[in-house]
Design a protein that fits this description.
The chain is mainly alpha-helical. The chain contains 10 helices and 2 strands, in the order ββαααααααααα. Among the domains are: 44 residues, Homeodomain-like (Arc Repressor Mutant, subunit A, Orthogonal Bundle), CATH 1.10.10.60; 35 residues, no CATH class. The N and C termini lie far apart (99 Å).
Length: 243
């Protein structure tokens, strides 16, 4: 119990698994997973480290549950939208979640003990694709392709050096001052004619690339490629052997 300015005792907040996880996520959001240890987490919660183990088994269990809460933030594909609209909304939601929780980018698909939100998310995405007419194999490939793009974009985005000015146009112009047009003509052309003029920001490119991925998936769905290892159809090919 702690005393307030009036001398009255104020109750200490009850420790729960949810409070442990939310505090752990907040700490990781601020300093990355390197800043998160059971000792520092206990200190932030105002408890001894042993108290944490009533709510999480160990560090792996803690991270599994943290990742599951990130999955719970992501928008599930809606039943009424067409598959492309649903996947577009879901991809944007994933990027937003990963931007909030940068530490999670490399962990979302790597946990050996996925939680209920994780499993529910994967099942819903596959279900949306299957209900749109995707074969089992094509649904898996489409899901993998979409996540490769989203996670790859998120990883690149968070790896970019911070821009104190917050102005991509100024950043481009500052970079141009360091480049020789004779040595790097293509870079100078891009920076001069595109980035510096339009204030292009890498984060704005996400939608452009996402549309290309979705269009490619739709083409593949309509014209599925033959299975690997299958024999090509040569019935309509002319006989090219010498006579």
């Amino acid at each position: 119990m702690a005393a307030d300015s009036l001398g009255e005792a104020t109750p200490r907040r009850r420790l729960s698994r949810r409070r442990v996880l939310e505090t752990a996520i907040s700490r990781a959001d601020q300093g990355g997973l390197d800043a998160l240890t059971m000792r520092t987490l206990a200190e932030e919660l105002g408890v001894v480290p042993a108290a944490l183990y009533r709510h999480v088994t160990n560090k792996d269990d803690l991270i599994d549950a943290m990742v599951d809460l990130v999955f719970a933030e992501i928008r599930l594909p809606s039943g009424g939208a067409d598959w492309a609209t649903a996947m577009r909304r879901r991809a944007i939601s994933v990027l937003e979640a990963l931007t909030r929780h940068r530490w999670a980018i490399g962990l979302m698909e790597s946990r050996r003990n996925p939680g209920p939100a994780n499993l529910r998310h994967h099942d819903a995405v596959l279900g949306k694709l299957r209900s749109a007419g995707f074969s089992v194999a094509m649904a898996g490939r489409a899901y993998s392709l979409l996540d490769s793009y989203v996670y790859g974009f998120a990883l690149t985005k968070v790896a970019l050096p911070p821009d104190p000015s917050g102005d991509p146009t100024e950043r481009a112009r500052a970079m141009l001052e360091q480049l020789s047009s004779n040595e790097f003509p293509n870079l100078v052309e891009l920076m001069t004619e595109h980035v510096a003029q339009q204030g292009d920001d890498y984060g704005d490119e996400f939608g452009y690339g996402l549309e290309i991925v979705l269009e490619g998936i739709e083409r593949a769905r309509r014209q599925p490629r033959p299975q690997l290892g299958s024999s090509p159809d040569t019935t309509s090919q002319p006989d090219a052997r010498p006579t």
